[in-house]
What does this fold into?
Amino acid sequence: MKIQLVNKNIEDIKTDVLVEFLTSDELSEHEKFKTLSQAGFKAEQDSICFLHESGFLACGVESKKSDNIRSAAASMIKALKESNYESVKLGVISKRTVSALVEGIILGGYEFNDYKSKPKKIKLTEISLAINALNFEEIESLFNESIIIANATCYTRDIVNTAPQELNPETFALLAKKLANTNELECNILDEDELKEENMNAMLAVGRASIHKSKLIHLTYKPANPKKIISLVGKGLTYDSGGLSLKAAASMVTMKMDKAGACAVLGMIKAASELKLDVEIHAFIGAVENMIGGNAYKPDDVLVSRSGTTIEVRNTDAEGRLVLADVLSYAQDTVKADTMFDFATLTGACVVALGPFTTGVMGHSHKLKHDISKSASESGELTGSLPFNKHLKTFLKSEIADISNTSSKPYGGAITAGMFLDEFIHKDMKNKWLHFDIAGSAYTETPWDCNVYGGTGAGVRMICEYLKNI
Ligand code: BES
Ligand code: ZN
Ligand code: ZN
It folds into this structure.
């Protein structure tokens, strides 16, 4: 499926179908839309109506805001993929909506067919976005950027969706190496011996019962004169069975997605390098599989983390924070970053707190949280801030070690997990760090907005928007 921006009047482009986005007001005001109303079309958001005789597809929108266009474009592309039409054209309404259109089409039209022996054949091959404006070049560069970002989001989704028998810490490292090769990134991978030398005992403990060796992956994108240095850290649990604190059968299904933070970080560095941004990016990934076995780490174990802080394990299913504790420590000692973000499907509690669509944002810097919230809403991602407080911190007290890996109370679990990570953030980095809990937003079994079944690529669009504005 090819998507192109064409510098022409829409009337001068020949295709099978013309698409228009219509509000209910436009529908009732114009006589030419009478047939649509007669067919029962009310221009409700995300509804569609084909007029096959005239090769016309109407897509309902509440208003022409980017978020509505993105979501309607996703409905549009799904309908067109089911049809026999081969080419379609639509007019670009404004500069602001170019990205929304591209994202709606690419992300809404995304399918993961690697394991389908007979994937559906799609007739649609060409989508033309028409714009005849003086600032065509400006719009074209926005269009090209959006294609890179949407494709990077699909790249992230592909990895998230890959089955755990295929994607384990070792194959994850190979995949990162491949990305480094194609995108000319520096790549350093630490194997278990090197992790031992680094005293990364918390991370090593989590992966100990797996037949696959844990890996720490460090990719670097280094432009000539970077304005800033950003570290991105990702939780890469290629499978989270819960370990000896085994998950219930129903909760274990979908836990291949516990690597979504790591996959997002790969998508971000891929996009940043393709956009040729003037920002140095370091991606750190802890790739680990949390399994059971005779040598598994146990509730009651005390781990000495890389930073020296001792951790009482009270639940082996709270493994992400153990991996991140060591990776965050390593990242801070390896790179003096201006800003550090971590991404993790860290807690079910975050999904309870914010619902399944919203990424939880935690950290100390109000400015950073404000900037990120702006980037998120401009890119069409949902975020919500979850505030730290010193009282919740007391829930992490351990009688036997410096800190417990689980809270003593069943409340505020997303925040206590964030505050656990905070324990491993250096003093001078406190105001330069944010933690993103993507447990709800990274994966979906029911389509919403421009997301389809599976990985959503949460984080990628938001961080690309943030990095573009540095
Ligand atoms: N990977 C899970 C969190 C998760 C849950 C992600 C649901 C996506 C959807 C994490 O490792 C986990 O199991 N967390 C526990 C923590 C608890 C044991 C303190 C949880 O949320 O139940
Ligand atoms: Zn877990
Ligand atoms: Zn997990």
The chain has a mean pLDDT of 97.
